[in-house]
Amino acid sequence: METINFENVFEGKLAKNEMVEPKDWMPENYRKHLIRQISQHAHSEIVGMLPEGNWITRAPSLRSKIVLLAKVQDEGGHGLYLYTAAETLGISRDELLDNLHTGKAKYSSIFNYPTLTWADIGAVGWLVDGAAIMNQVMLQRASYGPYARAMVRICKEESFHQRQGFEVMTRLAFGTTEQKEMAQDALNRWWYPTMMMFGPPDAESPNSENAMKWRIKRETNDQLRQKFVNQTVPQVEYLGLTVPDAQLKWNEEKKGYDFSEPNWAEFKQIISGNGPCNKERLAARNKAHHDGEWVRAAAMAHAKKKNEVYEAA
Ligand code: BYC
After folding, report:
1. pLDDT digits over 49-87, tens only?
2. Ligand 1 centroid – CA 141 distance (Å)
């Protein structure tokens, strides 16, 4: 009888651009890499609800309140799809959440900055969701099926979020002098943190090599950062605002902008738990989890009862 070489089957799938599915054999390091990335991504979605949720009660109109509420709910949904995708790799939801709540797991650096004004809500939707889409479009073709499929819906919703943010920025940028100043101030504070979302420079990115080899990532951190700058600068110009980077300059040869790197020492501090809002975010997540205990208990009791009725029938 012919013996199957599972490693060859796995490599063959990657070479043919086929998806790896939960019951397929996969190398242990691939599984661990995916759990790390997908769970960090899920945590980012639910922690990302906090700085925006903070503005729901203060949105300047009923329309903007409804739109922001829908956006924040979408982010909660993204977290759920992603936790479910991570669970297919053999880790429990409880363990994933425990890693977040104890500070063991990372989530996106961007959500450790405060949202100080309504313009920050515009800047987050426009820049942060814009950067998220730039990164996630390639993830729709990631080699792990459940992750790639979750990304399809997430990307569709993120594009609505990006429009929401750009609309807020447009209103402010074309509004009164004070409103335009508020928009510029938000751009000044969110520009570099957004650039950090793509991760460290390629030369200092320990996970990129495997991620590219296994077709989880299809573009590197630096490639995506460059694409983001190229796409966003014309939008800044349309708004009549200024990118807070004196070195920003079109480079005809590379058909892209030259720009200054973010402060990578600040990035390291943030991902080590020492950013402006890290402690506040973790405390809010822990409180929400604790306060939600009775909901989980009630849902479990209901499911158990339904099961008993079903089994007795
Ligand atoms: N923040 O080797 P590298 C959203 C970590 S949420 C924190 O380049 P990789 C949204 C990295 O984890 C957006 N940590 O890593 C939600 C690694 O540490 P470990 C979230 C970061 O994985 C609500 C170390 O630094 N998007 O869209 O190859 C409202 C070295 O990095 C960050 C995703 O999660 C960071 N910015 O590349 C609005 C997308 N960057 O794990 C919007 C999926 C790096 O070795 N994730 N680190 O301890 C990815 O594409 C990749 O994981 C990353 C990093 C590009 C983020």
Report:
1. 999 999 999 999 999 999 999 999 999 999 999 999 999
2. 17
CA end-to-end span of the chain: 46
Q: What are phi and psi of 68, to 5 degrees?
A: -65, -40
Q: Are 208 and 165 in contact (CB under 8 A)?
A: no
CA of 76 to the centre of ligand 1 (A): 18
**pTM for this model (two decimals):** 0.96
18 Cα–ligand 1 center, Å: 24
Q: What is the pLDDT of residues 100-143, one digit of tens each?
A: 999 999 999 999 999 999 999 999 999 999 999 999 999 999 99
Q: Is 119 in the pocket of ligand 1 (CB under 6 A)?
A: no
Which residue's CA is the closest to the ligand 1 atom numbered 40?
199
> Closest by alpha carbon to 220, among 199, 192, 247?
199
What six digits make up the tokens of 55?
A: 């503005």
The pLDDT assigned to 1 comes to 66
Nearest to 138 by CA among 218, 228, 222: 218
**Cβ(120) to ligand 1 under 6 A?**
no
What is the rounded CA–CA span in Å between residue 123 and residue 157?
A: 17
φ, ψ of residue 100 to 5 degrees: the values are -70, -50
How many whole angstroms separate alpha carbon 143 and alpha carbon 216? 6
